[in-house]
Amino acid sequence: MIEKFDTLKAVAIPLDRGNVDTDAIIPARYLKTIKRTGLGAGLFHAWRFDENGKEVPGFALNVASYRSGRILVAWENFGCGSSREHAVWSLMDFGIRAVIAPSFGDIFYSNGLKNGLLPVRLASGEVRNLISHLQEVPGSEISVDLPAQTVTGPDGAVYEFEIGSFAKECLIKGLDEIALTLQLEEEISRYERDRKTKAPWLFLDL
């Protein structure tokens, strides 16, 4: 199961950068773990911290007004690069549930949907408006309504976005691939019983 996503109204963080690759999102040295917790500490590590481990002033995630942000707004091709699922895990461990951008790396987009992170594609002009408002008034909130497929900016402007019906249903119901399979548990068990009856030799302990 994944955390259900219905509507989210939260402080939004403007990341005024394009072509943010997965190595920038979570450096390779954090990929040794298969746990999904603790990765938030490495999120955008090279941008958040200097060589002495101190926070870089002015970087969006270090600005007090954005620290409680749960929505990230960035430029085109977010999540490009290698296909590390840890990139999605690190964003979610940090507290981010939705990323808004004009476009995404294909694998990152798919990984996001499968893990409960909503990637929202909006037109470049719409993203520009959102980032401008968030920079002008740090701490402003954005509302993301998945059932309605809309994003409402700090100024009240409403933008529509597209998402596949299957992915949308899974997010709203909180279903990952395992949970989807378990919904068919009765049918799977019935098939296994029938198979053992019709071909018992396949189930012999050798």
Write out the strand line-up for the largest beta sheet, numbering strands in chain order. 4-3-2-1-5-6-7
Q: Could you spell the SSE succession in H and E letters?
A: EHHEHEHEHEEEHHH
What value does the average pLDDT take? 93
State the domain count: 1
Shape: globular
Structural class: alpha/beta
Distance between the termini: 36 Å
Q: Going by CATH, what is the homologous superfamily?
A: Aconitase, domain 4
- Alpha carbon gyration radius: 20 Å
Question: Helicity range of the residues?
Answer: 25-40%
Give the tally of β-strands.
7
At the third CATH level, what is the topology name? Aconitase, domain 4
Spans with pLDDT under 50 lasting ≥5 residues? none
Secondary-structure arrangement, i.e. CATH architecture: Alpha-Beta Barrel
Give the class-level CATH name: Alpha Beta
Overall description:
The protein is an alpha/beta fold and 206 residues long. The protein has one domain: Aconitase, domain 4. Helix content is 33%, strand content 15%. It contains eight helices and seven strands, in the order βααβαβαβαβββααα. The chain has a seven-stranded mixed sheet. The radius of gyration is 20 Å and the shape is globular.
Write a concise synopsis of the structure shown.
The protein has 206 residues and is an alpha/beta fold. The protein has helices at residues 22-25, 45-48, 86-94, 106-115, 124-136, 165-173, 177-182, 185-198; strands spanning 7-14, 71-73, 98-101, 118-121, 141-145, 150-152, 158-160.
